[in-house]
Structures are given as C-alpha cells and as structure tokens.
Specification:
five-stranded parallel β-sheet; 5 helices
Length: about 130
C-alpha cells in the first residue's frame, strides 16, 4: 500500500480545524500518509521570514501533494499564500478543502488548486489519490 506524503497548509489560529482534519485522514482504513505539516505545537526554529520560508520549502519538497484548508481566513494569511506559491513553484498539485460545514472558498485558493472538495473523508482521500505525484 502506498504512503502519501502530504503537507497541510492551515492557519494556526484555527488549530482545532487542522487537528480535526488530521484525525479524519487517520480514521480512513487502507490509507497511509506521512504528514509534513508544521503544527503550532512544533514550530520551526527560525528568526526571520526568509528562514521560515526556506524551512517551509524543505517541508514541502518531499511531499506528493499540498492540501489547503480553505476557510475564509486564507484571504488574510500571508503564510498560506506563501505555502501555495512554494507548492506552485515546485510543481506540487494542490487540493482545497471547503471548511467543515462551509460553502465559500477564497478565490485566491480556488484559482490555484487542482480541485476543491467538501469536508468529506472519501472525497478528500479520492482527490489525494487522484492528484498526488506518486
């Protein structure tokens, strides 16, 4: 069985959403993944924006796909935009996940991702399998 290397771009302000997403993937039988994300309890040891950007590039480089938790907060997150730009520069496919119970996805996300899917375990896993570089 394949193991998908993923990076989940998310806002630390919404850590609960990130953890809920991670548990959703973990609950899927016959789906293995390695998470290269940067959760707020394990921040990168950097002191400048340039150092952090370089560290994020290192996190994204070994991944097969970048997942964007696409709440409306993505409109205001400098780092989510930087992560999407890094993924694009590296030729990584991206999928956007609609917010849990939400309908709106920021245009800056929907215009860059390969696919937008609902907050549904099977839809998410199908999109990862479909678009991953594996």
């Amino acid at each position: 069985m394949r193991t998908f290397n993923i990076f989940v771009s998310h806002s630390w302000t919404y850590t609960d959403e990130y953890k809920r997403f991670e548990k959703l993937l973990e609950s899927r039988p016959y789906f293995n993944f390695r998470n290269y994300s940067v959760p707020n309890e394990k921040p990168k040891d950097t002191s400048t924006d340039k150092e952090l950007k370089n560290a994020l590039e290192g996190q994204i480089r070994p991944t097969h796909i970048v997942i964007i938790l696409a709440g409306m907060y993505a409109n205001y997150s400098k780092w989510i935009n930087i992560e999407m730009n890094i993924a694009k520069k590296m030729g990584k496919p991206m999928i956007g996940i609609k917010p849990h119970g939400g309908q709106k996805v920021p245009t800056q996300v929907s215009s860059q991702v390969n696919e937008i899917v609902a907050w549904n375990r099977e839809s998410i896993v199908d999109a990862i399998r479909k678009h991953s570089l594996i």
